[in-house]
Design brief:
single chain, 13-stranded antiparallel sheet, twelve-stranded antiparallel barrel, Porin, 12 helices, mainly beta
């Protein structure tokens, strides 16, 4: 970055802007720092981003390039994952260093009329510790346009104007901050937290217009390491900056730092709680056909007591459902009731599909049919049963509070093991499907290369021999990229089950990505099973088996998976290598309130190590899903290698979030701190919990707001 001399009169100009800025009615929205967290320029504030907001920031200052993913996990808690390139961190002329780090911030006190908001934060507490620091900060807003911040920092944030740690009065060990042993990195630096000298920092931000914010700060970061090595010598602790946010989806920042440097930043902002499109583009559903004397007199109803009548009714209802993006599997007629089994092809929200089917049934069934039993089917297995009364559809469609009333009057339970009513009419379902599409393969945050990418084209297809017996596969042709660059094997004391990915990436011919035969079954009313055999993924093939106990109305589900697999040849044809392993896990899933879902998997992994994976995801009403995970096994930090243990962040974005049209497809990515060999599982498709959970509670109750859409 270019160097500048100190600008005369800049402080006076900044104060004039602060004091003379026009009053704005709009409340101030927190901006993002060069570290990619809500705050001023480099210093944090106690302000939080809106609940659920995601910020992806690129910040450039001095010889550092920081890319940060920040997620406002709850209204009070936010977490950040940062990948930094730091030039000459170990001295002049040394190579650049690529560093991965995690932050955590908790707002412990909300702002009130007289009191400020207060937050406690840990910067780079999980990583190498190159940027580590801790802080306590308070922020008070005035008139919705001015925010004043003051705080106390430790570590990197306690190096400018520091003084003896006040926490030393509690324990003298707080007075000295141990040197961090970088080692393999990736571990919690708990022995340095809030230790050593403390230093004050502070600043002010002023919303000048609806899109422009001015910020000034006193930094408590002296860049002591850089100064000692001679790579940067700050001449002032005062920084100034402007942030420009023309739209809610992104902001740009420019700043003048430490009397010497220009800093720039850009942040892409996503709000998972809202659609990217202005409104949904779903086709309007049919209105409910109310049974009146006029309707009874005007309609010519088919007689369901005859085979011809049942066939006609089934065909008409099946065609109507197909127009709504659903496939009728079977329709069973009973005494004043029908049981409908169907596949939800397009609607991510099961209740939205159920509402539309119930409307179709009011048009397609004679008036004596009162009870609709809807059973969504996945992989040939009915996952639940929802009973809806026709009279409730007629009474509630246009009534205030219809969403909650319709849910309260529905009966949700397990699907019957087999259709118990007769006679049964079966509608022909599609068996073969295929797709050809571009395929982008990304590898991020490697120790020697920050981003690798490979572009290809993928042809995938599937054929349902039976609804629950499915053959599927995909082939891929590489079109180019840099995935194969660099050393394909990194030092590890474990079997190379993932770190040899470079050898798989070197192949530029057509490769067999996967080819499997999957069988799904129900050994019990609320127990689901799966057996998948074949080339399960690009690196492993074999047999994968799974059982899942998932009661329809329970937040808890339990699973068991056992895999016998062998490593595939690097060419990704039909051959195998010598390494084979049996892996298995016992899993517990729990659906918390507010869209949070926790999962614990305990067992044996691909490299033969044993341990557990803990994950927590948050899924929003529109299907946007963000989560994090970590895995601890009996592999030592030395055997695991750089990163010490497996951890990462994952994001899944529903396609209908940005298209606005119904779709069950998602786009997913995994932000791993570093892919290693420890804690790795087989990447088999069609695992049971994600297959069935959308058609059961609590997902049904949480999505019921879309029943009438």
């Amino acid at each position: 970055m270019p160097h500048f001399s100190r600008l005369p009169g800049l402080t006076a100009t900044a104060l004039a802007l602060v004091l003379g800025a026009p009053a704005m009615a709009q409340e101030q929205v927190p901006t993002y720092t060069l570290y990619g967290t809500p705050g001023l320029i480099e210093m944090p504030t106690a302000q939080s981003a809106p609940d659920g907001e995601i910020g992806l920031t690129y910040g450039a200052v001095l010889d550092q390039r920081r890319t940060t993913f920040t997620f406002q996990v709850t209204p009070r808690i936010s977490g950040s994952f940062r990948y930094s390139r730091i030039d000459e961190f170990f001295g002049p002329g040394e190579d650049e260093t690529y560093d991965r780090s995690f932050d955590l911030r908790v707002r412990v006190l909300d702002e009130s009329r007289y009191l400020p908001a207060v937050a406690v934060g840990l910067q780079d507490f999980l990583g190498t510790g190159l940027l580590s620091g801790e802080y306590v900060v308070a922020t008070k807003t005035f008139g919705g346009r001015v925010a004043v911040t003051g705080g106390l920092g430790w570590g990197r944030l306690g190096s400018q104007g520091g003084f003896e740690n006040p926490l030393g009065a509690i324990d003298e060990r707080f007075e000295v901050r141990p040197e961090i042993d970088f080692g393999e990195g990736g571990t919690v630096n708990d022995d340095v937290l809030f230790r050593g000298d403390a230093a004050p920092f502070g600043g002010v931000s002023v919303k000048l217009t609806d899109t422009l914010t001015f910020k000034a700060e006193y930094s408590s970061d002296a860049y002591a390491r850089e100064d000692a090595l001679g790579t940067f010598e700050p001449s002032s602790p005062v920084n100034f900056g402007l942030t420009y946010r023309p739209r809610k989806e992104f902001e740009l920042g420019v700043s003048y730092l430490y009397g010497e440097e220009l800093g720039i930043s850009g942040t892409l902002i996503l709000d998972p709680k809202s659609r990217e499109t202005v409104g949904g583009q779903d086709i309007a559903p049919l209105p409910v056909l109310v049974r009146t004397q006029d309707v009874l007199a005007s309609e010519s109803w088919e007689d369901p007591s005859t085979a011809a009548g049942r066939e006609t009714i089934t065909g008409e209802i099946g065609q109507a459902m197909k127009g709504e993006g659903m496939t009728l599997v079977s329709l069973v007629f009973g005494d004043r009731q029908v049981r409908v089994r169907y596949v939800n092809d397009d609607f991510r929200s099961y209740p939205q599909g159920m509402g539309r089917i119930a409307r179709i049934l009011t048009h397609g069934l004679p008036p004596e049919y009162e009870l609709f039993i809807l059973e969504p089917v996945e992989k040939g297995l009915p996952v639940s049963s929802v009973q809806i009364r026709r009279s409730d559809m007629e009474r509630l469609e246009n009534r205030p509070g219809a969403t909650q009333l319709s849910y309260d009057r529905s009966v949700i339970g397990p699907a019957a093991a087999a259709p118990a009513l007769a006679p049964r009419e079966v509608y022909e379902i599609p068996r073969f499907s295929w797709n050809i599409a571009p395929d982008l393969d990304l590898s991020a945050f490697d120790a020697s290369e920050p981003l690798r990418a490979g572009l290809g084209v993928e042809l995938s297809s599937s054929y349902a021999i039976r609804p629950n017996l499915i053959v599927s596969g995909a082939i891929r042709q590489s079109l180019g990229g840099n995935l194969e660059e660099g050393d394909p094997i990194r030092a590890s004391g474990l079997e190379p089950v993932r770190t040899n990915v470079g050898f798989y990436n070197e192949v530029d011919t057509v490769t067999l990505k996967d080819l499997t035969l999957a069988y799904y079954f129900k050994p019990g009313q609320e127990v689901f099973g799966r057996v998948t055999a074949g080339y399960l993924e690009r690196m492993f093939g074999g047999v994968s088996s799974e059982l899942l106990w998932s009661p329809v109305n329970s937040r808890l589900a339990l699973g068991l998976e056992v895999n016998a697999v062998q490593q595939r040849e690097f060419e990704q044809g039909l051959g195998f290598q010598d390494y084979d392993v049996v892996t298995g896990h016992v899993s517990a899933y729990y659906d918390f309130d507010n869209g949070f879902m926790g999962q614990v998997d305990m067992g044996r992994y691909l490299a033969g190590d044993t341990g557990a994976t803990v994950s927590l995801d948050r899924e929003f009403d529109n299907g946007f899903r963000v989560g994090g995970y970590f895995t601890l096994t009996d592999a030592t930090e030395e055997d695991f290698g750089e990163g010490s243990f497996d951890k990462g962040i994952r994001i899944s974005i529903p396609v209908d979030w940005f298209l606005g049209t119904p779709s069950r497809r998602t786009v997913s990515t995994n932000l791993s701190s570093l892919t290693r060999d420890g804690g790795q599982r087989v990447r088999v498709g069609g695992r049971l919990y994600d297959t069935v959970k959308g058609g059961q509670n609590p997902d049904l109750s949480e999505d019921w707001g879309r029943f009438w859409r």
